[in-house]
Design a protein that fits this description.
heterodimer, A: 114 residues, mainly beta, 11 strands, globular, B: 114 residues, seven-stranded mixed β-sheet, 56% strand
């Protein structure tokens, strides 16, 4: 119940296209859902996060869509660029982490080709 | 430049060696973390320190020994490691542990156990 299932494992998108990464969770206590971006040789960095009081959050070309009833959330990257090529991790936890730390998905390696 | 600095960047050690990983954060955060990142697996939380006190130990083998002398520094002491311990070890910090605040990761130490 602590898992976050992320798909696909890898993704190749043409420049200008839309990249979509999906995550699903089981724990209904989860109410904080961040996405982290990791470039080769670097540590992950927070990209965008959402709480379930909204169904969508947009920051520039990056949008999180959240479906509470389905217990799913997804990252959409509009107008994907080669500089977006990285590994993306979804994560989830209760807002008050306490003894329930952030649970990460396995990651999606995105390659944006020109 | 990241506010979380890890040294060394790469480490090769034999199974009988003793070595230490170092992490320093310049962000004024109160919580510090060690994560293990292996290929095709979710980020694994190893240890959490909040205000220098260890609050989480995720059943990590005793061959890994953390030390947090102050809220800015975190060490991971390694001894008699196994080849399966080869991975990227990431240090992170956050403003607090109890309420989710963004994790700031270092660039990691790539550990190879021979």
């Amino acid at each position: 119940q602590q898992q976050v299932k992320q798909s696909p494992q890898s993704l190749i998108v043409q420049k200008g296209g839309i990249s979509i990464i999906n995550c699903a969770y089981e724990n209904t206590a989860f109410d904080y859902f961040p996405w982290y971006q990791q470039f080769p040789g670097k540590g992950p960095a927070l990209l965008i996060a959402i709480r379930p009081d909204v169904s969508e959050k947009k920051e520039g070309r990056f949008t999180i869509s959240f479906n509470k009833s389905a217990k799913q959330f997804s990252l959409h990257i509009m107008d994907s660029q080669p500089g977006d090529s990285a590994t993306y991790f979804c994560a989830a936890s209760p807002a008050r982490a306490g003894n329930t730390p952030l649970v990460f998905g396995k990651g999606t390696r995105l390659s944006v080709i020109a | 430049e990241t506010g979380v600095t890890q040294t060394p960047r790469h480490l090769v050690m034999g199974m009988t060696n003793k070595k230490s990983l170092k992490c320093e954060q310049h962000l004024g955060h109160n919580a510090m973390y060690w994560y293990k990142q292996s290929a095709k697996k979710p980020l694994e939380l190893m240890f959490v320190y909040n205000f220098k006190e260890q609050t989480e130990n995720n059943s990590v083998p005793s061959r890994f020994s953390p030390e947090c002398p102050n809220s800015s520094h975190l060490f991971l002491h390694l001894h008699t490691l196994q080849p399966e311990d080869s991975a990227l070890y990431l240090c992170a910090s956050s403003q607090d542990w109890e309420y989710n605040s963004p994790l700031h990761f270092g660039n990691g130490t790539r550990l190879t156990v021979t």
